[in-house]
Amino acid sequence: MRRIKGRGRGKGKGKGKGKGPGSWLRLRMFSGAERLRHVGSGLALAGALDTIDMSLVDHLPFARANLRWNPFGEVPEAERGALTVPCFDVDAEVHALASPGHAVELVGDCGRGKSMHLLALHDHFSDSPMTRVDPGERPSIPRADVVFVDESQRLSRAVRRRLFSRRASFVLATHESHAEELREAGVACRSFAVARTDVTHLRAIVQRRIEWARRGPGALPSVPTTLLEELSKRFADDLRGIEGALYTHFQRSHRGQL
Amino acid sequence: MASCDLTIELEGDGVYRPGQTIKGTLHVSTSGAVRCDSLFVSLDWYTHGRGNRVRGAIERSELFVGELTAGEHRFPFEFQVPATPRVYHGELLNVDLELTAKADIPWAIDPKTNAEIVVVYEDTTGYVVAPLSASDARDGCFPIAVATTVLAAAFALLLGIEHHVAVSFTLVLAVFSGLVAANRARRWFAAGKTGQVSVDVSQGGGGGYREVSDRSRVRCGVQIARRGVRINSIVAKLLVQEIVVKGSGTNRTTSVHELYSAEEPLSVEDNRTGADRLPLPEPSRIPFSFNKTDNHVEWRVNIHVDIEGWPDWIGAYTLDVTPGDSAG
Predict the structure, then answer these.
(1) Which residues are B25's β-sheet partners?
(2) Left if phi > 0, otherwise alpha if psi is -120 to 50, otherwise beta: which for A235?
(3) What is the reported pLDDT for B164?
(4) Roughly what angle, to the nearest 10 degrees, separates helices A199-212 and A225-235?
(5) Which of A165, A213, B70, B144 could bridge to A71 as Cys pair (CB 3.0-4.6 Å)?
(6) Long-range contact pairs involving A182-189 (C-beta distance under 8 Å, separation at least 24)
């Protein structure tokens, strides 16, 4: 028998404990050779792998690494906010945004994490609609206490002026700062450049993604600091590029190509 | 608000074969009376990997509607493991099955849980190949592209005397649409020379589903409608690839990973027909067709007809490939 338990807002990661005899192999230790293979592949396992259902290992990719999927695959939009490692105090900004006349703008180039930060803030105002402005579009931005706009640099200056004159708070993800326009409209604006290049921040992002892919209780793989430094050097603050490289790295690792 | 916990209990080890029955019990534990608008278990497929995730229900079993009293409740359920969609683990795309149990409780966060289903397949001894769609070489955009080029060039000449900026812009437009028109022209003239080109990828003629009994090859036949066309060669290329799309809007990115490719020159007879057998991959190594939003395993045959002294005819045919019979 297998039992998988969920409660309340369970994310359904299949976290469960074996019930029947023999169906789950508990506290399975990696042999020396296996441990070396994983360390050598760049996916270092922090400790013993336990509670892995051995009947699954041969049939599912990443099961041996205690993962359900490649951690650097595409994340569903509903889960992106929770995976963000914010570069500012989210609670403080949420508190400020609760009253009208405040704005948080997230500034950066493509693939730097603007939308992820936007979604992290949106998780605290889930009733507020979010508008993404695609090229050439002139979307009508719904009225709300807190207005979320992704790619707000694509709105014309006139549309932005009308938007900022509303009695509301704003969260904007943009390539170029609207701080001046917001101040002119009497909105207190806090600008954050979301691009980060330090390895400590990158490690936190990577660890959160690996935790998201967790199969069950026990140790998870970790990415060596040398690899993170190499990726940081190669891609600078391009998080999307780093994610892509790590996706390929995990694919190769689980296929034993590294 | 009373708490409500869901637990899925499966009989066996959770590893199944297509056609087998998944038997289990949904345990519901409530600390007080809970109104439940819907309590269900569904067998779902879902994708993961480099592309946008999509999921769909294969079968859903409604277990209870009404008021759950405080305590423990058991709801048995069963599903049959489907033959398709097949579980697949590739480079860019993965397809898995799982059970999802959810209680719809008004004015509360709905409790939910999932259980992974592992499916193993017998080795298949063949494929079932059926044509899905064809992109003919003749392209209706060609006359439009030519018309745009001519109009843009004429407009540039008319404006040329006084409006230098406008003429520059229009000339750029004329060059661009000219390039598009040149490409379309090649396809247009090729299709005009050959007439209707019929392509049949299966065993025998016609377009219906056919079992490929020869495990290693599939017949590819090309028939050109017009007589008197001098054909240098006809080459068919069978291609299997994972195609996934991530992101949306301007952030939409398509990734392609080639799984199999085989190119074969077809034997040409009477300058009108070409036929040969294309080598197929081992069924255990290559996935069958999978077509869901942003996530595809595409089987296609590209046909290249080299016409003497004339632009080449090029066409692409998408196939729907499903498993044949099982070895076991």
Answers:
(1) B9, B76
(2) alpha
(3) 63
(4) 110
(5) A213
(6) A182/A103, A182/A105, A185/A161, A186/A101, A187/A101, A187/A102, A187/A103, A188/A96, A188/A101, A188/A102, A188/A103, A189/A102, A189/A103, A189/A104, A189/A105
Cis peptide before B85 (omega within 30 of 0): yes
Chain B interface, Cβ < 8 Å to A: 3-15, 27, 48-53, 89, 91, 94, 96, 98, 100-101, 109, 111-116, 118-120, 246-251
Q: Looking at CA atoms only, how far is residue A170 from chain B in angstroms?
A: 22
Minimal-distance CA residue of chain A relative to B51 = A74
Cβ atoms of B93 and B50 within 8 Å: the answer is yes
CB contact under 8 A, A7 and B48: no
User: pLDDT tens across B96-142, in order?
Assistant: 999 999 999 988 889 999 998 999 888 776 777 776 666 554 444 55
Taking the C-alpha atoms of residue A40 and residue A19, their distance in angstroms, rounded to an integer, is 35
Q: Rounded distance, CA B115 to CA A2, Å? A: 9
CA distance B18 to B324: 13
Q: Does domain A88-193 have CATH number 2.20.28.160?
A: no
At A200-237, the pLDDT tens digits run: 999 999 999 999 999 889 999 999 999 999 999 999 88
Residue of B nearest to A213 (CA): B48
Q: Which residue stretches of chain A are H helix?
A: 32-40, 54-57, 77-80, 90-97, 114-122, 157-164, 179-184, 199-212, 225-235, 239-254
What are the pLDDT digits (tens) for A83-121?
999 888 999 999 999 999 999 999 988 888 898 899 999
ipTM exceeding cut-off 0.85 for this assembly: no
Nearest-5° Cα angle at B44, B39 to B46:
135
Residue B31 near residue B11, CB atoms below 8 Å? no
A-interface mutation test, from B26, B116, B245, B254, most A Cβ less than 10 A away:
B116
The answer, for A83 touching chain B at a CB cutoff of 8 Å, is no
Helix (H) or strand (E) holding B283: none
3-class DSSP state for residue A106? strand
B317 or A5, higher pLDDT: B317
Residue ranges per domain, chain A?
15-75+198-254, 88-193
3-state secondary structure of A198: coil
- Lowest mean pLDDT across A101-105, B172-176, B190-194: B172-176
Q: Does A177 touch chain B (CB under 8 A)?
A: no
Of B52, B111, B250, the CB nearest to A6: B111
Mean pLDDT on A42-64: 61
Q: How many CB atoms lie within 10 A of CB A43?
A: 24
Judge: B8–A4 Cβ closer than 8 Å, yes or no.
yes
DSSP state letters, B60-75: EEEEEEEEEPSEEEEE
DSSP A152: G
Average pLDDT over residues B259-268: 91
- Mind listing the domains of chain B with CATH numbers? 4-119 (2.60.40.640), 127-138+195-323 (2.60.40.640)
Nearest to A114 by CA among A72, A81, A70: A81
